[in-house]
Amino acid sequence: MSLNTFMQHLSNGLALGSLYALIAIGYTMVYGILRLINFAHGDIFMVSTYIVFYSVTLFLMPWWVAFVVAILLTGAFGILVERLAYRSLRNSPKISVMISAIGASYLIQNLAIVIFGGRPKAFPIPEFFNKVVYINTISIPVANFFIPGITIAALVILLYIVNKTKTGMAMRAVSRDYEAARLMGINVDTIISITFFMGSVLAALGGIMWGIKYPNLIPLMGLMPGLKAFIAAVIGGIGNIKGAVVGGFLLGMSEIMLIAFLPSMTGYRDAFAFVILIVILLIKPSGLLGENLAEKV
Amino acid sequence: MKKENKIRIGLIILVISILTILNFTLGNYQLRILNLAGIYVVLGLSLNLINGFAGLFSLGHAGFMAIGAYTSALLTMSAAQKQSNFFVKPIVPWLANVELPFLPAMLIGGIVAAILGALIAAPILRLRDDYLAIATLGFSEIIRVIFTNTMSLTNGALGLKGLTRYTNVQYSWGIAIITIIFMFSLRRSSYGKAFMAIREDEVAAESMGIALFKHKLLAFTIGSFFAGIGGALLAHLMGTIDPLMFRFLMTFNVLLIVVLGGIGSITGTVISAVVVTFSMEALRFLDGTINLGFMVIESVPGMRMVLFSILLMLVVLFYQNGLMGRDEITIESMRRFYRKNIKKGAKS
């Protein structure tokens, strides 16, 4: 393999890893607070790409306005999903909440098929991201630089919010002990809404960049990236934001490298992530950076 | 013979004779749906055993169905059928000339699914709740991906076409009735009681001397066996199988049946399997153009599934126990119901 192709694979791996990381953060934040796998997260991601598509093609917005609109609307959509599907089940058995999450995911997918149509649509890529940069003989698309950059920026902002602000402190308190946080005067419902908002905003960011990199929109496009991002969150240690990012990069990179070095295994690409998941769950269920929690009797 | 048993046998004979009458009077299309209902009873009960009795939240049903379907289909296909199917890449030689009747092929399909289920379950049963769900979902996806890629064994994404349609009412409902009886007697047995103890509280069950791993593995294996049988029946009803059939959608349909019927209830699952299958067919008009007289709604494919997802959400949000909760319709409960409502009504 020449240096050129290897560098291209490396940059593709970084970009895919960033996308997984952005989506994984949403899973990990929600899991940290509610102990719930938000199955609908991948579909929230899918909705964001369609919002961009319709903002640009139907409402003729310039691309950057469309991006901002998509990010805000997706955040609101995340809050809506939590209100409708999870809030009334907060004290129900785990299995009910999980079925509700699966149901919500399924409902969004089917609504998307009805509203957006099953035929693939092309994501409107801004001219700017379509260029290719040449370093000596190595050609790398501009998007491959932007995607990791924006991911790192988003991560820094997120870590600042979680660690330094009052809201972030409240979020950490809720995830540590839900009842005690409520007794301390924290409005748990608001904090959960904020968590869903932030997770969905990151999913929208991921969705937009996914659209730039893979501009083929279908209503079921959220399924696989969603599952893989969840796997990334588990690899890093679910509930841990940095872990989700590490897991995302690890998964994205190893997936691209698998295809790069073993092209005959390309068909097994989707199975590969699940194999990693099962191996991680068996060896270290708390993930790479996660803390061990024993069950209380 | 006890009176209860007499009533039971009478009921079974009644059901069988109704099915026999239906078998001779219904058209092809209706028969197909009746068969499908029977198959969904088997599938729903097997998932109910894993999710409802043993409390293991598994989302891998479609994978085990795929194994049962493919195994049985490859065994029943004649050499000529195989040759016409595997035109891209020839089939592996050791399977090329195997041809078995339907019943043994189906049983082998179930057994292979059970063996694989046990192999998969052994490592992942250490996980609990949502991790278990994701891991089982992962395995079912892995199975599907493998089936898509092994051209010389499963014919890959092209699938297997032109299977002989062996599944008839005798097979589908015969096996459904056997499954129902099996589930009832399993639940009465010490194994069934151990499953339910594990469901209620693992730690308490373990301290009462129940071997957790053994019982979980057993529940998972039996569930996979019936899933494989259901898959085999489905394959020989449809006549065509391909890996896309066994996506998560398939697990979702079975889960829908179990949740609507009440997780943990056998009769609930049976009723909801029949109702869901028939309504899925009856609501097919939703996907087409609807003429309301004063206005015509353009056809929107997918409307039916939207309705079903909303239904699932509503049940989970507002009616968590489903149709039956964990109760059953038994002879005893019907007698009690009769005494409570009908006799009282007659007196007043």
Describe the structure.
The complex is a heterodimer of chains A (297) and B (348). Chain A has 297 residues and is mostly helical. Chain A has one domain (3-283): ABC transporter involved in vitamin B12 uptake, BtuC (Orthogonal Bundle), CATH 1.10.3470. In chain A, 71% of the residues lie in helices and 4% in strands. Chain A has 11 helices and 4 strands, in the order H-H-H-H-E-E-E-H-H-H-H-E-H-H-H. Chain A has a two-stranded antiparallel ribbon. Chain A has a two-stranded antiparallel sheet with strand order 2-3. The radius of gyration of chain A is 19 Å and the shape is globular. With 348 residues, chain B is mostly helical. Chain B has one domain (3-247). Chain B contains 16 helices and 2 strands. In chain B, strand 1 (290-291) and strand 2 form a beta hairpin. In chain B, helix 9 crosses helix 10. The longest helix of chain B has 27 residues, at 212-238. Chain A binds chain B through residues 36-37, 84-85, 88-89, 92, 94-96, 98-100, 102-104, 106-107, 110-111, 113-114, 118, 223, 227, 230-231, 234, 267-268, 270-271, 274-275, 277-278, 281-282, 285, 297, and chain B through 51, 55, 57, 59, 123-124, 126-127, 129-131, 133-135, 137-139, 141-142, 145-146, 148-149, 203, 248, 252, 255, 259, 263, 300-303, 305-306, 309-310, 312-313, 316-317, 320.
